[in-house]
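During the first year of the project, the team set up a workflow for recording each protein of interest as an amino acid sequence followed immediately by a discrete structure-token representation. This format lets reviewers and collaborators read both layers of information side by side without switching files. As required by the reporting guidelines, we include two representative entries from the current panel. The first entry is reproduced here exactly as it appears in our internal archive.
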Amino acid sequence: MNNVLTLVLGGGAGTRLFPLTKYRAKPAVPLAGKYRLIDVAISNCINSNFKKIFVLTQYLSASLNRHVSQSYAFDQFEEGFVDILAAEQRAEDTSWFQGTADAVRKHWMTLDNFDCDKILILPGDALYRMDFRAMLQHHEETGAEITIGVNVTPQRNAHHFGLLALDGSGQITTFKEKPKTREEQAGLEAPEAILNRFGIASKSEEVFLASMGVYLINRDVLHHYMMETDHMDFGKQIIPESIKQRKVQAFVHDGYWEDIGTIDAFYKSHMDFLKDVPPFRFADPAAPIFTRQRFLPVSRFKGAQMDQSVVADGCNIGRAVIQKCVIGLRSVIGDHTTIERSVVMGSDFYDPAPLPPWQKRGTTSIPLGIGKYCHIRGAILDKNVRIGDNVRILNEKKVENADGEFYHIREGIVIIPKNAIIPPGTII
């Protein structure tokens, strides 16, 4: 599809995903044992044969840039590419990205050199599978100037998204960006016909139509907003204004969709992944999710008991009990350790390794990974953690939110941040 240029937005700080975003951009957060969030957006493009892709980055972008450059290289004889467009200061404008639209505007001189008549704008932090060719066909058949990918969301999550209403032809008539109160959301409840399409049997919980942050825009329309307005954001300014002046259609996506915007959503998506029939398959033969090839050895097990769990490559697992967990690359788990309903991201490297710079020379180094006789439940362990023997991470007091010396609790989920060192015998 050479007439479509794709932009994947990856510049936000991702504060609601802290501490997973303490050292990395949100699209670079590890996912499902071996992937990164950015892999979903790029894989959807590749599977749709949309192969002219720019990733716009700004916040803590080093690991994201490295992952993209190491993972996606097309044949030199085809026109496809996945390139990074990093935020940069210029003589006429020394500010950083001020919003989603401003990120596109600051690179418009580069984008304007490409021969395309439509531009697809995607979030870099959502989990879904979509064939963008179907969206393009819908866009052209309806004569739309802008088409927005739409899914459903329950009322409890409605304040996180742009909510909208449709007429009988699927044209968007109303759009409100992240309305916080029930009064602001009134009148935007999804009609029965839409609920039936999504297979939702009853209205026991109110459901809304939500923007997925997926926009297909005619080039001349986007050029107008980039060059003739100072709008900084698509959801807050450009989309609401466009609905009043232009033909803005909805493309209803009736598949799985999870916006990975919070710790709870991140954790939930991983627990969904472990269901007997997961709602999202990374290995769909028709449209797989791609990632970096690492050429790691197969994982080793020494008497481990495992149930409803997945284990990535290169792991070394002792006589542990692992129940409903995602175990990431190069994970090391000691004997007699129990891990339940948790996400273990693994490591970027193997021991032996030099002492971390924050660990004083001469002290006893805790090996990389999880030690012996530990008990961990309902937790997220970021990469390169060193957990000593007899550590208990259980949140038995059911704390909702807290910050400790080497841990954080968000929405009742304990997060051990990247590179953390937890002494033997610690109880969290």
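The second entry, processed by the same pipeline in the following quarter, appears below.
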Amino acid sequence: MNQKIKNVLGGAIVVGVLVFGYSALSYVSSYDKSIQPSSFRSFSAVGEGKIVAIPDVAVFTFSVISEGGKDIASLQAKNTEKVNQAIEFVKSSGVDAKDIKTQGYSLSPRYQYATCREIMPAPLIPGAENVISKVCPPAEIVGYTITQTVQVKARDFARVGDILSGVVSRGVNDVSQLSFQIDDPSTIQEQAREQAIQKAKARAEKVATAAGFRLGRLLSVDEGYAPYRVYNSALDYAATESASSVKAPPAPTVEPGSQEITVNVTLRYEIE
């Protein structure tokens, strides 16, 4: 009887040792894979998501450039009056104050340079060659130039042309950097991301079927964005003339076109 008990206990111990050893081996293997994913077989599948969207914001800048003499205070008052008039017109055209931002303000001197005079001194040593030197008086400040630049975000495209022509008639003599943007691209990026993931999953399943293996767990997800591509945006008018020579400029025709937002996703799977 005692011998049978000993045999049963011995067998149980052997089984326990085997189970423990197998469990320990499985745990070590799983832990090693979790911290060293390169230690086992894997492959990657790439998917690209593209969404074409219509911009909802037109962004442009306008500047008032004023040149005058040495009376800086008078020049500043003249420049500020024109800028304020333009800003008030933009606000009255339906643009919120939060979409109007002063982008730059500069005061720079204008110089007048005198002609240099040549001087030929008497030779110090008889027979030596005369040395010609030049005397150049310092440059003189004859006036100043003030440039104030304002950035505008217009959300009503139907009024962009009127705003551009309207600010020019109110003293603005430089309009530039017109671009069409998507104010909040996060929603569109999410759509492109979902599309890219679905394509990457489908490609991974096709590769696994063709190669004769099963997809394991998902190991990593890498994401990248491609630069926006802009199509068919146009501006048929640019204001660069002096405001004094422009009384009633025609309203330009603007077309926002479309933008293509692209998201690239790489999915890495374990091979089973």
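For the second entry, the following points were noted during internal review. Helices lie at 2-35, 72-92, 160-169, 186-211. Residues 2-35 form the longest helix (34 residues). Both points are flagged for discussion at the upcoming steering committee meeting.
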